[in-house]
Write a structure and sequence with these properties.
The protein is α/β, with parallel strands linked by helices. Helix content is about 40%, strand content about 20%. Strands 1-2-3-4-7-8-9-11 form an eight-stranded parallel β-barrel, surrounded by seven helices. Strand 3, helix 3 and strand 4 form a beta-alpha-beta unit. Helix 1 packs parallel to helix 2 and helix 6 packs parallel to helix 7.
Amino acid sequence: MTGIGYHASHEQFAPSELLDLLQRAQSAGFDAAMSSDHLAPWSARQGQSGFAWSWLGAAMQATGLPFGVVTTPIGLRYHPLLIAQAAATLAEMFPDRLTVILGSGEALNERPFGAGWPGKQERSARLAEAVAVIRALFRGESVTSDGFHRLEEARLYSLPARPPALFAAALTPETARRAGGWADGLATIAMPHDKLRAVIDAFRDGAGAGRPVHVQAHLSYAASEAEAERNALEQWRTNALPPSVAAELSSPAMFDDAARHLRAEDLSSSVLMSSDPARHAEWLHQIAMLGVDRLLLHNVGRNQQEFIDTFGESVLPLLVG
């Protein structure tokens, strides 16, 4: 049975409001949560970006949900030693509830730290090395390295009984297949079915059967079709930019300029827009049928309470019943 989680979008809501929404989602029947980890929002219209690792401690204490967090340990914003310590601390306090989703990042969150912005090939190599470092630290080893990430006798002293799972964030079959060699699971986003199936199949080709797949679905629910389209266009039009472009833009203003020309119909393949809960349920069921273990739902509009309450009453029962 596919689990249904709530996506906590730090780019759109203040941390305190997001905590209230998460508790409301748990009460409505959502059985998992996912957190973004951004320095800046995608768009000036979103206007927020709290520090995810501070918020996660409060959120995991305030709920009983399993959490995933998407982060980038490639040594620009975060050194892998820091990510390993942060994740180990949460996993020690909240056993078996944390999944760390690792990717090669975007300039939006990394470039402001002044360490440059490497090309994709170097970022992938940095990520592979970071994964090896984090796993060694989770095993309690002392790590010294003079690679991309310099460490001198680094060790974690507060370790959980079981380390958190390390998932790969992947948007293409090539990245997913490569991740199959190291990742405990795959996290990707909803996309047209042939493309999504290709990403999932590529991961399973590389990883073998049995490793879980989580899919984040961007959707826009509202009381009318027109409002659902307006919400998507106002808050999440940048999602229609190709991943290769999105990875290189380094400010909300640049994203807004790049997406200025987009219309609601341009979002149809990346945001599920409808005022009909049953239609959303059918879309999500089709995604789940690809062998997805957890769906993380992100309603891209600001109408979060309406979304949580309506989906808790009318959509979740159709998906888990």
